[in-house]
UniProtKB/TrEMBL annotation:
GO terms for molecular function: transaminase activity. Residues 437-453 have a biased composition (Low complexity). This is DegT/DnrJ/EryC1/StrS family aminotransferase. It comes from Methanoculleus frigidifontis. Belongs to the DegT/DnrJ/EryC1 family. Residues 421-436 have a biased composition (Basic residues). InterPro entries: DegT/StrS_aminotransferase, PyrdxlP-dep_Trfase, PyrdxlP-dep_Trfase_major, PyrdxlP-dep_Trfase_small. It comes from the Archaea. Residues 396-411 have a biased composition (Basic and acidic residues). Transmembrane segments: none annotated. Keywords: Aminotransferase, Pyridoxal phosphate, Transferase.
Amino acid sequence: MPGYELIGEEEACAVKDVFTYGGVLTRYGHDRKRRGIYRVEEFERAFSRRMGVRHALAVSSGSAALIVALRALGVGDGDEVITQSYTFVATLEAIAACGGVPVVTEIDATLTMDPDDLAARITDRTKAIVPVHTMGIGARMDAILRIAREHGIPVLEDAAQACGGSYHGELLGTIGNVGCFSFDFEKVITTGEGGMIVTDDGAIIARARACADHGREMQDPHTPADSDPHPSGGFNFRMSELSGAVGLAQLPKMDTVIRRQREIKRQIQEGLSDTPGLTFREVPDPTGDAGNTAVFFLESREAAAAFARCWRERGHATQNLPDSLAWDYAAEWSHILGGYPRYRGRKISTLWPQSRAILERGIAIPLQVTMTPDAIDRLIAAARACAGTANLRARPAREARSSASDPEAHRGFRGRAGAARCRRPLRRGARPRGQGRRSSAGRRSYTGRQPQP
Ligand SMILES: Cc1ncc(COP(=O)(O)O)c(C=O)c1O
């Protein structure tokens, strides 16, 4: 939960500021009362600068971002949208919410979209392709974009789990036609709940903006909603000013989060590199890995299950793999897919065998940016022990303090906000430190379902 781990005085003061300067909590209108404070707008500007894109639209969640982006690409009733079998359930929910038909590819050893299977599933009804950059790592975007361009189909990158990661020098989310991010509580940066859509395409962002605000189309944040003709439909997916303020305070911390995650992951991979029976996830561009999760494979499903039991007994957490596939694997979602004629009568649990064979051997370990060297060493030692010793479960859980619950683990890092003293109010237009440049650097969202020891 990297963004959350670094929440401090800056976020508390940013929120307090909103109340100090008028207390207007909605992003649009009320110009006189709000005394020049438009935090959501500022967050959008800062985020688009940081990502190096022309347009950014902040919304109420990553799920909302996906729905809005799909609608902005014109996805409607009966349109096929291709995504991958391994993703958080929100990706498919969003396609379904737009009336689209989810067409699901296998994943490969990268745990992202298998481009060969993508090519095989394109039809003349395919309206969009949605690769998902899972657990900080970019999908094989070269191949995916080549296939998409050959067929003239737009690409929407679901970068909810990979904010700050990159692929061959381009930031994830900015490579296809449109990208979506989540700022929920467990992501690289967090606004509690929130999301962002980014694109260089003015027409896409105009449609997205309207869709996120009941169809309001005048694009002028200062026009009262009742003066807008809003001829098209939409939703209330607006981000609140409080979330915008928190986002502005979190964004400058993103580079620190990514740098730290990468370093911790490097140390862990190094520490586990010669562990018998353990192989690492394939990464299309290792330099772009946002570093939020350490993923490796055991030799069999049984070995992975035994590792996971040992790991839990030692008080450590996993993240999705192998224990929460119900949330992250399409073969578990007959409640969504069973309603479509193309899936009716089919045994959904058996549809993506290549993916299942990979996922069932996988172990994913969430990394915390505030881990101390000792906590990292303990994690490596526990992983080596769990990988190598079948009878570990019989051992007393002496080391059952996870890095998350270990009071020593975070020593030396800044703690919570406490009673924040807000000395320097963040006024309109003030650019938070560290923003305004495009990073050459280039994360799974922690969906809250991993056992928290
Ligand atoms: C791949 C993916 N897409 C979309 C979402 C939805 O984001 P949110 O929780 O902000 O609605 C998530 C959240 O975990 C995700 O992991």
